[in-house]
Amino acid sequence: VQLQASGGGLVQAGGSLRLSCAASGRTFSRYVMGWFRQAPEKEREFVAAIRWSGGSTYYLDSVKGRFTISRDNAKNTVYLQMNSLKPEDTAVYYCAAQRVGDYYSDYAEYDYWGQGTLVTVSS
User: Fold this and answer.
1) If DSSP codes are grouped into helix, strand and coil, which group holds residue 75?
2) Helix, strand counts (H, E) of the chain
């Protein structure tokens, strides 16, 4: 299983970025796909998740209304559209896949991880 994250970069506060996570190696129809982030000297934090089957979504309270997680079944890719970015959103963002799907906000329950992509929001 491989998860390839991309799309990070430097953006000014109020700007937007779209992260992508290309998944390969198996069928992900029963999986939950998540995005986490880790800022310097902070613990890894849940950001958003989506059930591949059905499309139910979940968000960290502080990103609700600004971030949108979605999936493209044909491309086996999950996206995180980030709008109205704030300096406190600065972090390395990771995508992950969980087979069980009941604990979408717990990073320890995820089975596969992609490499991180750095998002820097300047004030």
Assistant:
1) coil
2) 0, 11
- Phi/psi for 34 (5° steps) reads -130, 155
Helix, strand, or coil here: 43?
coil
**Which pairing describes strands 9-12 and 117-122: parallel, antiparallel, or unpaired?**
parallel
Are 50 and 71 contacting, i.e. CB atoms less than 8 angstroms apart? Answer: yes
Structure token digits, residue 88: 């406190």
The per-residue pLDDT for range 42-101, each reduced to its tens digit, is: 999 999 999 988 889 999 999 999 999 999 988 999 999 999 999 999 999 999 999 877
Backbone angles phi, psi at 32, to 5 degrees: -105, 135
Beta strand spans in 13-116 (E):
17-24, 32-38, 45-51, 57-59, 67-72, 77-82, 91-98, 112-113
Q: For residue 69, give both structure tokens.
A: 């997680």
pLDDT for res 44: 96
For 87, other C-beta atoms within 10 Å of its C-beta total 11
Listing from the earlier edge strand, what are the strands of the sheet with 2-6?
2-6, 17-24, 77-82, 67-72
Cα-based angle 12, 50, 47 (whole degrees, multiple of 5): 40
